[in-house]
Recover the amino acids of this structure.
């Protein structure tokens, strides 16, 4: 009897050791990866690389922010509305089931396929040239399913008593949603939006054939209708991630590698900013919206 | 409540959000319809056999009109081979990490691993590709003394890093949802923690873990830029994990911009996009099926 017991204890310790090693390796990989990219990016950085000219990545940074902003402008209202529908109005019929499958299909679409679809519909069929708006629309398609799901989850995780209280006071279902449920779910929804923005920041495959791989911008021209104005949505615009790809595949510049290193470092930095930002913002809003009360009340009950 | 009041307080909002739901259905159907319309031209306009497309490796599509060969087997095999190998590399690590953060050290897991996973997921695929290209590819060339390091292995490692957070977080969710009575029962029968994990927790969480695996595979299959930066884009079947090859997404990204709309080459690339769409849809159905089976066994 003693031997098998010893054996399983040894196996337990061995397995625990392996699991600790894997977890440690995991963290090491992340730290090594990010530190490597950041150091390499900073080490090769020269002031002109940060400029808003062909030599720098300033234009691409502006394009990325602008494109993400435009795509959120389109996808956030749609995603919120669809999420509200799924959480509050959708029944359990076949239509809802089908809608759910549609959301999952959209969520799993390879971004290159979305890029091709965008190229066909927003460029070939409208006769337009590569433009920022087409890229923003393609990224919106990629964002839409996650924004819908996040809204739905946030609404569904609210306590039932919240809606009952409002309905009991005579509010309609919609008034309850707009006045009570949505504000209460906002912290989680905003976290979801920030995360979606972070993901769009590094998107490239969907943009190659929609917003194009180049830009021609004049930063002293702020008339949104002029073809070289940074604000014009119908101009071609390469983002940071697309720039890395373009430098790799057709880059002829001598400093292509350095620019890619720097762009990578900036993208990694943005990942950290968005990740931390969504966490902090989520906590902050949670406290503000609930007045920090939910936790105390929860404790009292227990 | 009179009619106008009712409209303002309920009907308007309800209609708007219902429209948004319908829009999503419409959008999905439109994407599907366009892909089917453009992707089927290879078969209906250029009169190619679907078996030729899937199983032949003769890839010489005509740049103008039709008359070439559109065997996409190399691309398909490349995609399957690289994704499969990536899964093989990522799976043990993912499950181990998921078990660690749920069963061994939830505190450490929540404080460090969970944020780390989020950051891994957030890193853009071109950055993975760029690091793969500048670090991994030369390293493989050096270690295996090859002329170039572009290989199936490089693609699989890059993909493994990319799908590993997906599989880990889905698996961790599945393990967390195993009722704690199961753990208590196993302990009270005298099992060690490890016995409890691999005899009780993992089998119970298996459907959830499988869902994570399928999600990871789906991501690997559809990933375009990172893979095509490191696999060498050579049009040949891979003879080993160290040989360069190409895949569906690499071919789409590389050549879509060079083709004229309506040419056989262009149509064949659309057929590949359609194939990717169908595969990702099949993955969704598979996940639904796993979910159903999982619910039944519970």
């Amino acid at each position: 009897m003693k031997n098998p017991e010893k054996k399983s204890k040894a196996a337990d310790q061995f397995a625990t050791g392996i699991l600790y090693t894997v977890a440690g390796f995991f963290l090491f990989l992340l730290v090594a990866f990010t530190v490597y990219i950041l150091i390499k990016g900073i080490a090769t950085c020269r002031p002109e690389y940060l400029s808003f000219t062909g030599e720098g990545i300033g234009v691409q940074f502006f394009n990325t922010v602008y494109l993400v902003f435009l795509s959120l402008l389109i996808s956030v209202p749609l995603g919120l509305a669809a999420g509200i529908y799924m959480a509050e109005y959708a029944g359990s019929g076949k239509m809802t089931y089908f809608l759910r499958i549609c959301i999952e299909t959209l969520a799993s679409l390879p971004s290159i396929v979305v890029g091709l679809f965008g190229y066909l519909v927003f460029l070939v069929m409208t006769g337009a040239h590569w433009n920022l708006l087409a890229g923003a629309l393609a990224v919106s398609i990629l964002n839409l399913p996650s924004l819908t799901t996040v809204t739905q989850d946030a609404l569904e995780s609210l306590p039932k008593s919240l809606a009952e209280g409002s309905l009991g006071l005579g509010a309609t279902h919609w008034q309850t949603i707009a006045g009570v449920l949505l504000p209460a779910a906002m912290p989680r929804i905003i976290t979801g939006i920030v995360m979606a923005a972070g993901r769009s920041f590094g998107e490239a495959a969907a943009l190659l054939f929609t917003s194009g791989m180049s830009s021609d911008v004049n930063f002293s021209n702020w008339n949104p209708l002029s073809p070289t104005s940074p604000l014009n949505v119908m101009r071609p615009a390469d983002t940071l991630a697309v720039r890395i790809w373009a430098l790799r595949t057709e880059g002829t510049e001598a400093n292509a590698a350095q620019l890619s290193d720097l762009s990578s470092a900036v993208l990694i930095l943005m990942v950290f900013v968005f990740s931390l930002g969504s966490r902090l913002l989520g906590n902050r809003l949670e406290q503000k919206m609930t007045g920090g009360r939910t936790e105390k009340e929860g404790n009292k009950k227990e | 409540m009179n009619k106008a009041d009712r409209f303002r307080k309920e009907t308007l909002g309800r209609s708007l959000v219902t429209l948004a739901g319908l829009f999503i259905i419409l959008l999905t159907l439109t994407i599907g319809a366009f892909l089917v319309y453009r992707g089927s031209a290879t078969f209906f306009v250029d009169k190619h056999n679907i078996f030729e497309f899937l199983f032949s490796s003769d890839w010489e599509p005509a740049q103008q009109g039709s008359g070439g060969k559109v065997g996409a087997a190399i691309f398909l095999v490349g995609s399957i081979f690289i994704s499969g190998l990536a899964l093989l590399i990522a799976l043990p690590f993912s499950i181990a990490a998921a078990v660690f953060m749920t069963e061994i050290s939830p505190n450490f897991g929540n404080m460090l691993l969970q944020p780390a996973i989020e950051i891994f997921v957030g890193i853009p695929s071109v950055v993975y590709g760029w690091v793969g290209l500048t670090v991994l590819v030369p390293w493989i060339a050096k270690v295996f003394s090859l002329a170039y390091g572009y290989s199936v292995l490089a693609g699989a490692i890059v993909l493994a890093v990319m799908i590993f957070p997906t599989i880990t977080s889905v698996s961790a969710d599945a393990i967390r949802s195993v009722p704690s009575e199961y753990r208590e029962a196993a302990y009270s029968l005298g099992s060690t923690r490890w016995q409890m994990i691999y005899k009780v927790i993992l089998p119970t969480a298996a459907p959830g873990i499988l869902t994570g695996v399928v999600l990871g595979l789906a991501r690997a299959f559809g990933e375009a830029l990172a893979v095509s930066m490191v696999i060498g884009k050579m049009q040949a079947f891979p003879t080993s994990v160290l040989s360069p090859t190409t895949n569906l997404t690499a071919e789409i990204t590389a050549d879509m911009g060079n083709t004229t709309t309506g040419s056989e080459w262009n149509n064949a690339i659309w057929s590949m996009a359609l194939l990717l769409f169908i595969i990702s849809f099949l993955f969704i159905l598979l996940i639904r099926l796993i979910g159903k089976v999982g619910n039944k066994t519970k």
